[in-house]
Amino acid sequence: MKKKSCPSQLGRVQTRLALIFIAPWAVGFLAFSLYPIISTFYYSFTEYNLFSAPKWIGFSNYSSMLHDNNFKAALYNSLFYIIVGIPLQLLLSILTAILLNMNVKGRAVFRTLYYLPALVPPVASALIWVWLLNPQYGLVNALLRMLHLPEPLWFSSAEWSKPAIILMMLWGIGNTMVVYLAGIGEIPRSYYEAMELDGGGSWHKFTKIIWPMLTPVTLFQLISGIINGFNLFTQAYVVSLTRGRLPGDIGGVGNSLLFYASNLYREGFTFLKFGYASAEAWFMLILVLLITFIILKTAPKWVHYGE
């Protein structure tokens, strides 16, 4: 008779195989993620320029942020984008998803067309909108001129540069829209039929069925949008370069396009103040965690789960 393998021995073999398969990821995570994270926490308490050994200065980097006008401008610009741009993005995504969920001819084509801008690389997208929003030759101002409406200076103006960035980001809401579209598709048809029997119209369907059922999706989209808002970099950087500015000057007119990630990049890789940049990175992490904590604590009041 053949000797059967005991369960404990089989379990040890499976454990070894599992460790072998996850070893490449574990090594990569330790070397390229965990170690840099720990290092930046240490560097945030030092003066470090990459060419000399880090010098311990305690909380000086953090206290310097309180007196740094560039840091204050970057924080304000990022918060402005998050407070104004993210709600607009969510609202437009919901409305677009509802329209694309309607049973009309060519629905698949419309869905494809509305999603295509999300596939455009950020650099190409920024270049397109720099051309569209050109104050003198852009198509947007040409249309406004035909309608005898005011023609903003867009990226050439400190007042209009942030709205221009928000407008650019609203063009690429495809990913957010698709998630909402999937959420709407999961709502049972019987809910709409019951509302129709009660005499409810489109507004009642939205307020009583669609919106409550989409609140978990909105919670996810809101937190993701806030994180992405603090990491906004490429579009503002490309716009600054197309305006003929030096690579280190990525703040736009009056630092109106100096977002948090842009300022962090400039401090670290232009001015070589890696200790100060690390402190800014950890401050952003703490701020995002705090905002996320507040949202999750208030979520039970407006997020509805289950049927």
Element order: H for helix, E for strand: HEEHHHHHHHHHHHH
Counting DSSP E segments of at least 2 residues, the number of strands comes to 2
Biggest sheet details: 2 strands, antiparallel
As laid out across the biggest beta sheet, the strand order is 1-2
How would the global form be characterised?
globular
Rounded Rg: 25 Å
Give the class from helix and strand content and strand pairing.
Answer: mainly alpha
Helix content: 55-70%
Mean pLDDT: 90
Low-pLDDT windows of residues: none
Q: Distance N terminus to C terminus? A: 57 Å
Instruction: Please give the count of helices.
Output: 13
Summarize the structure.
It contains 13 helices and 2 strands; from the N terminus they run H-E-E-H-H-H-H-H-H-H-H-H-H-H-H. The chain is mainly alpha-helical and 307 residues long.
What does this 3D model show about the protein?
It contains 13 helices and two strands; from the N terminus they run H-E-E-H-H-H-H-H-H-H-H-H-H-H-H. With 307 residues, it is mainly α. Strands 1-2 form a two-stranded antiparallel ribbon. A hairpin with a 7-residue loop joins strand 1 (46-47) and strand 2 (55-56). The protein is globular.
